[in-house]
Design a protein that fits this description.
Bound molecules: protoporphyrin IX containing FE
Low-confidence stretches: none
Helix content: 55-70%
Order of helices and strands: HHHHHHHHH
Shape: globular
Number of strands: 0
Mean pLDDT: 95
CATH topology: Globin-like
Radius of gyration: 16 Å
CATH architecture: Orthogonal Bundle
CATH superfamily: Globins
Number of helices: 9
Strand content: under 5%
CATH class: Mainly Alpha
Length: about 140
């Protein structure tokens, strides 16, 4: 019996994932609306581009290299101050990067964006007030 296609296969495999991640960080790097999110990242985005690509490959049912590292993506983000507005910037840029992928199944793209958005929201660890006070200090 043939296995059902994974989301990884359905969206076009590693080239599609790499294109989505590339577009996501290009948006984050260039649009003023994502400045707070950008500011949390290192100047050189090449490591995180690679890391998110490996993570999404695994998360979508493709090669499991990122999961084999044994890191928890939620724990990794605890050291960054993330108010709701920054989680929303992440989700917005990711939803746009996915929607712009040529030929992507619209429903699958929306489902991916929705679930990734839930993950981003679960990473919130500051109120907007905390974030403003930290900036003023
Ligand atoms: C909630 C908003 C988020 C913020 C502010 C954020 C921020 C960051 C930052 C600052 C880094 C380190 C990059 C660097 O040092 O330049 C990072 C790495 C990473 N983030 Fe996020 N992130 C968010 C959401 C997410 C979500 C929802 C996912 C997964 C779906 C994710 C997956 C990753 C991965 C896989 C890495 C690379 C880790 C590694 O391979 O070492 N992030 N993130």
């Amino acid at each position: 019996m043939s296995q059902p296609a994974t989301p990884y296969q359905m969206i076009g495999g590693k080239d599609a994932v790499a294109a989505i991640v590339g577009r996501f960080y290009d948006l984050m790097d260039s649009e003023p609306g994502y400045a707070d999110l950008r500011a949390l990242h290192a100047r050189d985005l090449s490591t995180v581009r690679h890391g998110l690509t490996l993570f999404l490959n695994a998360w979508l049912g493709g090669p499991k290299d990122w999961f084999e590292r044994g890191s928890c993506v939620m724990s990794l983000h605890r050291r960054f101050p993330i108010p709701p507005s920054v989680a929303d910037q992440w989700s917005d840029a990711m939803a746009r990067a996915i929607a712009a992928q040529p030929g992507i199944d619209k429903e699958l793209g929306l489902a991916m964006a929705e679930r990734l958005g839930h993950m981003a929201r679960a990473m919130v660890n500051r109120t907007e007030d905390d974030a403003a006070q930290a900036e003023a200090a």
